[in-house]
Amino acid sequence: MFRKTFDVLYDGQHTGRYRWDQLMKTEKTHYGSLFEINLRRAFNDVIDDVPDEDYPLDYRVCGHDIDCKFSQKLNGWMLPPECFGHLLLVATANDEQGVWSLGIVRASDSNRRLTSNRDKKTQLNPRGVLQIRWLFKNSPLLPNVLLSLDDDTVQKILEPKGGQGRIIELCRLVTGRRIGRNTIATVAQQDDYMARLRDNGHGARTVLRDEGYLIAGEYKAHREIARKLGQPEPQAGEIVSFRVVPAADDDSNTVELEGRRWRVARPDEPVTEPAPKLPTTKKSE
């Protein structure tokens, strides 16, 4: 949910954005509302709607009224008077650090500051922060691939003017890692972004084959190839790119393709012949 909310705000396919600091202030403020909506949808079997739209709190869970609060910083939650005395579902997430937390606390008199701002909002006091019952604390956020790369690598990926060229650079420079659909959309910035990967004469699979690259997709046969080669297995909507070379008889982690055995190339190992073609497969396979 946190990853999805970040990606919706970045809207990388149309903006090319992938970092929190690229958002406008109003967009950052909107994160909390989007997160509340996504959480409600994800736990529809547990979370109930409040009695009416004018009701001041967000959810009803097992008969308990709960207000959902998000802040990128711990204890940055702003508490309006209408939530005083009620349970709070407090959430925080940091895309750069790659962590998220979710906890429960009551906005009681003893847990919140007595001072307030002009909007009569206040925050948890030190005791209140200690009273948070963490359901998840500093749990790993699904990775933001572009954010995890150094600036020079990102610049090389985004340098080509066309989406096809950028996708080729992405697959060339980011190897041995699961790359999700949203990253591909952000780099391509096109409606048909997944088509940039195709083995169709000018897609990434065709162009990079001469350099020894295989680009495995979500298909069962592709996942099996990645597993045998000791690479991460791409999940739904993901790819994993890696270079291969012919394998010797005593090599481990090999796979047979086009009648020969192959292994993953070492980082600085030269590639002297094209990679084999991946099996042709349908979506359901």
TrEMBL record:
For the Type II restriction enzyme NaeI domain, which residue ranges apply? 2-272
Q: Which terms does the record give in the GO molecular function aspect? A: DNA binding; type II site-specific deoxyribonuclease activity
What InterPro entries does UniProt report for this protein, alphabetically?
DNA_rep_MutH/T2_RE_sf (IPR037057), NaeI (IPR015210), Restrct_endonuc-II-like (IPR011335), WH-like_DNA-bd_sf (IPR036388)
Q: Where is the composition biased (Basic and acidic residues)?
A: 257-269
Provide the residue span(s) of the region labelled Disordered: 252-285
| Highest taxon of the lineage | Bacteria
Q: Which GO terms describe its biological process?
A: DNA restriction-modification system
Give UniProt keywords alphabetically.
Answer: Endonuclease, Hydrolase, Nuclease
Alphabetized CDD domains for the sequence: NaeI-like (cd22338)
According to UniProt, the name of this protein is Restriction endonuclease NaeI
